[in-house]
Amino acid sequence: MGSLRDVLSPFTAWKHVIETPVTLKNPIGREAADRYRGFHQNDTEKCIGCGSCETICQNAAIDMVPVDDPKEGDSGLRPQIDYGRCCWCALCVDVCMTGSLTMSNEYTWVDTDPDAFRFIPGVDEKPWDAIAKGYQRPGERMLSGLTRPEMMEMEPEARIDNFDEIVAGYSREQAVLEADRCVECGLCVATCPVHMDIPDYIAAIREGDYDLGTQILYETNPFSEVCGRVCTHKCETVCAAQYEGEPIAIRWLKRHIIDNVSEERRLEIVGTPQVLPTGRKVAIVGAGPAGLTTAYDLARQGHAVTVYEAQDHAGGMMRYGIPEYRLPYDALDRDIAVIRAQGVEIKTGVRIGSDITLAQLKADNDAVVLGIGLHMGRSTRVPGSDAPGVEAAIDLLRRITAGEEVPVPKKVAVIGGGNVAMDIARSMARLQKQKYGAVGVTVTALEDFAHFLADKEEVTESIEEGIEILDARGPQEMVTFKSGKRKGEVKGLRTWKVISIFDDQGRFAPQYDEADEIVHEAEMVVEAIGQMADVSLLGDELTEALQWNRGRIAVDADGHTSEPWLWAGGDSVHGPDVIHAVADGHKLAASVSAMLAAKAEVAK
Amino acid sequence: MRELIEHLTPRYSLGAPVFQRPGLTFVDVKRDKLRALLLDLRDKHGFTHLVLLTAVDWLEEGRFQLTYLLNNRAADQTLGLRLYLDRANPMGDTIHDIWPTAATYQRELREMFGIAFPGSPRVDEEFILEGWTDMPPYRRDFDTLAYSQQTFVERGGRETHEPRATMKHKLYPEG
Question: Does the reported pTM lie above 0.90?
């Protein structure tokens, strides 16, 4: 029942008919507020195609579509947005890892084709692409943290007189915090030489399922405990988190998984070969990461594998190159124990060439794999480089590991700026501290600090430990005693300031400022400028027969040499790096295994 | 403001105040003291304006928070009263007789959070959601994406690509 007012009020409204309307006649084209959330903009150069925008979208409005070929750290995909679904909430902008995705304040657009409202911002050109106004995420990385939890490390004073491991590893709380920063985009997987399932094992940490984590690690890498400590972690250089903060500490998270699974449990999880023995025999020369990974894969396929190792213990450069304070021997031994458990026989203290010949191995096996590493130090060949007191870094490191007596003078000079130079400098510093209570090591590197080869943390930690690092110094001469009882022995290193290292064509041709000369006092000068493979085990005949590539044994993509029975991989073929050696090991095993399978077919 | 809070705290057993910034203060209040406090504030202390009434879903704590934001125009002071309700059976008290505009807020909270305000005018009528049958959508356990996928038709011609699989396919197909 309406009142009288209800009946009359429509007529009273007529009094407004001559007033100016407060509504807009044509709202199209009216500018929105400065921070209005309108159509998206994407800086496609900045975008890495991680797909976090698609994952977070609550309306399934975003598809990742190929725009370019993928390359390291960039999937080549870019977000395509369906504006029939977009609710303009801007979560995609808030989660964007690079800050490439923003919103303009343009919101009006008329088109009769519904499909026009689905496009790739930044790729399909739009009138609002250059509008500066609109919504940008306030501040950096609102939805996830910018920094890693701080890793507990031994203080320099506590670590300098011993070889105890420096890094403590993450606690459960720290690891979960760090795992939570990962958006699981998986861009890192392509960059890892063995393509470890990084997002999956990080997810396992978040779930607290370390058994699953271990299982995932072992699918691609039998040296996860080693790699969790010393991997060159190329994955972290492409991590989506690095653009506005620190990359995820992938290496430390890997270590965290292994740290939380006992050796016995690890053996249970990995298990033993579940196939019948094939009766095929493979000999592997060198018990380093390449050789042992090959052995692990082949043994799990049922082949009988024997690894021959010249040193007294297995591990290769992981044991005899990397110092114990970075990689404790028992950590390495746990990785090797799992490989041994697969039935791999490791014969240590057997040198091929002298104890057994390669010809003998060829005769006794279906295939032979060389993973001999780079165990001979290169020399600077400057005057005096053959004098007593001049040492090769790689040889000294091996002797320290083997427990041999090494000379420890009060003053040591190291030539080189890579990680091996840091390893020997820090090892000698520890021995000096033990013997004299003081450190006296000077590292002279050809490169300046802006182009340094060693890892940043290695340089930082070396300096913390009292080691002097001089950049851009080129060795000219090992200064020796000219007379007296120590005549001919080293007493110092003479260096010049480096002006440039390479010439216009990029060839190695150092230029020096001869006026800037220093003589570094030292009774030992260590050369750490690179290593080469000791290929004397091949013998003359095989050396002649094999094809070579710039001093390295030439191999095809699978690691097969020019001899049908012989494969080669690891550092000696592809340069020094544990994870690359593991990748090589998988490749070698796959190639050898394919050949053995073909042989079995023929035998039928 | 501090004086007023000191005056009110023992009378209405208020919680510890948070002085957010000059002119903005928050304080917790128990449900049984709310009505008396609101009347006191409105009639004796100049808080004549209800700025808004809203809620927060503290899913992990099993409770909803109601926030009554009041303003004293003359003193340029805003006071936020926070009140907690059991999430399992969320029941608020209507204040539409104190501020008529509260009825609209309460109707919205009923629809978006599922908080009941018995006696509030038209509280059970649809507010902005038409024909809604699902869980109240501002509850944090409401899965927006799943709802959107179930409810809305996918427009044809869409295809997405997973970054990791794309990179594997193109960069290392054999590995």
Answer: no
